[in-house]
Amino acid sequence: MASRLPKVSVAETLAEKIVTLGPGALPAATMRKCDDLLIDVVGLCVTARNRDYVESALAGCDDDGPCTAIGHKRTLNAAGAAFVNGTAAHGEDFDDTFEGGPVHAGAVIVPAVLAACERHNPDGRMALIGIAAGTEVLCRLSLVVPKAVHKAGFHPTAIFGAMGAAAGVGAALGLNARQIVDALGIAGSMAGGIIEYLAEGAWTKRLHAGWAAQSGIRAALLARGGFVGPRTVFEGVHGLFHGFAHTTNGDYDALTGDFGTRWVTDTLAFKPYPCGTMAQPYIDCARRLAARGIQPEDVTEIVCEVAEGTVHRLWEPLADKQRPPNGYAAKFAVPYLLATGFVHGGVGLGAFTEDAIGDPRVLALAAKVKFVIDPDNPYPSNYTGHIRATLADGSVVEDRQPHLRGGAQEPLTRQDVIDKFLLNAEHGGWSAAQGDATLKLMARLFDGRIDLSSLRG
């Protein structure tokens, strides 16, 4: 077997490019996107801070230390803070998305790098480098074998998140190339995350981002301490892609080829609605149909054209997607989501309470929603929406959304990101003064010392 090992592995090529990054190396657009990620993630941590799953995650930690769990008085060690913050940031499914993946980068990388730097390297300039490097690695990994990890039953954010967090923390802490290779190799044995949460709306998807974030910290610290990981963690016959994508044949050039000269991070999308990403264009279509004056009771049937790769997560079993068993399951049920958008004019954080998911007008419309597979759908390169509704008078109305709003083709502005933060902060119980003070802190966070103490409590 040793004779078949490459002279220079994928991880070694990647690590050499990561260590060349330093203050001043990032394009303005990439730095701006990292600023947006910081604002978005902190707001998401605040909005979820009193939710039952965050309280459970915090209660499950017995590793107190000096690091900030955003919105909580209790402090934890770096790994614990990354876990709680990552779980909170991903928990409402309102976090960013990389359309090519799909993966969620901010909820993994920002908590990992902030916690690591708060404890080990308070230089904000290196935190910025870490967030950029980790986000780029996570997103690019999802392009190596598109759709294969989901198809194999795993959550790509969880799998690639551990690797991205290891790279991001390694960059932020100034690890050398050999140590970053070891960190990636170690993280490969920490990666994991099945998607069985879809069966009944269990909470485990929520912890995937937090688990990946804390895994990246532990892997980087182990590597810094001299622990050795496999350098062929990606392409090896027993490597990451063999284990989670069932193949070692992939486009590894998508990961390393122009790393550091072209930044896919710049194309990250921010969600308009707190639910599954691929459902969002369908909600937009439903809202536009309702805006024509069509009443839900006038609709006899809705047929949606969908991508085959989304069916097992967002459309089946159809009866459960029409009438989800709980609020979290509803976030991944397109019939319920588009019906909510149609009936109420949008989908907000309040759409997932027990009362909301029992709304008889929403459920009556959701029961009329069906799907057909469109073999030409561009997913995962682009997320589209389509609704064809048959009305009681026999007429047919149709609407299409050609891309994800908030994505590369229609990005949110900085003010949009700030407005979302302020709404999330208010929803999480923070005063307007706390929200404004936090925005001021984040505006200068990467320019000086990482100090998150004002985000506690």
TrEMBL record:
Species the sequence originates in: Bradyrhizobium jicamae
Matching SUPFAM superfamilies: 2-methylcitrate dehydratase PrpD (SSF103378)
Family label: Belongs to the PrpD family.
Lineage per the UniProt record: Bacteria, Pseudomonadati, Pseudomonadota, Alphaproteobacteria, Hyphomicrobiales
Name used for this protein in its record: 2-methylcitrate dehydratase
Segments forming domain MmgE/PrpD C-terminal: 273-427
Domain MmgE/PrpD N-terminal intervals: 12-247
PANTHER family in the record: 2-METHYLCITRATE DEHYDRATASE (PTHR16943:SF8), 2-METHYLCITRATE DEHYDRATASE-RELATED (PTHR16943)
GO molecular function per UniProt: lyase activity
